[in-house]
């Protein structure tokens, strides 16, 4: 169950980062509110995950999911341009996240 909480926390990290972008510097109230709600869900789920998982495992996976997810959202929804070599390093991040998960006890 801790891994489910951690996955949800990572997904909502992407959600709140996306809504923060859409809030235009917190000038659009609806997206600002959604940002705060996303942050709360993300942090609550991360806190729940760290009750059962070591922080040294949970935190890097949470930030990794957020980083990779935010890059993908940026490219798909905001037209961000990522160079091919950057995609290689995004792949390295993804491999690292998966590696941490599968090598933890």
From TrEMBL:
Entry-linked Gene3D superfamilies: 1.10.3730.20
A Pfam family: Multi_Drug_Res
Record carries keyword Electron transport: no
Membrane-spanning ranges: 27-47, 59-79, 85-103
GO CC term (a single one): plasma membrane
Chief localisation class: membrane
Signal peptide limits: none
Membrane topology summary: Multi-pass membrane protein
Key words, A-Z: Cell membrane, Membrane, Transmembrane, Transmembrane helix, Transport
Location of this chain's protein in the cell: Cell membrane
Full protein name: Uncharacterized protein
Organism: Lacticaseibacillus manihotivorans DSM 13343 = JCM 12514
């Amino acid at each position: 169950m801790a891994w489910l909480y951690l996955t949800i926390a990572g997904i909502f990290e992407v959600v709140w980062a996306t809504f923060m972008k859409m809030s235009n510097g917190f000038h659009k109230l609806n997206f600002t509110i959604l940002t705060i709600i996303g942050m709360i869900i993300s942090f609550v789920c991360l806190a729940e995950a760290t009750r059962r998982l070591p922080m040294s495992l949970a935190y890097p996976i949470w930030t990794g999911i957020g980083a990779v997810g935010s890059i993908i959202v940026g490219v798909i929804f905001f037209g961000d341009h990522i160079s091919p070599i950057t995609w290689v390093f995004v792949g390295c991040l993804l491999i690292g996240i998966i590696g941490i998960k599968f090598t933890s006890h």
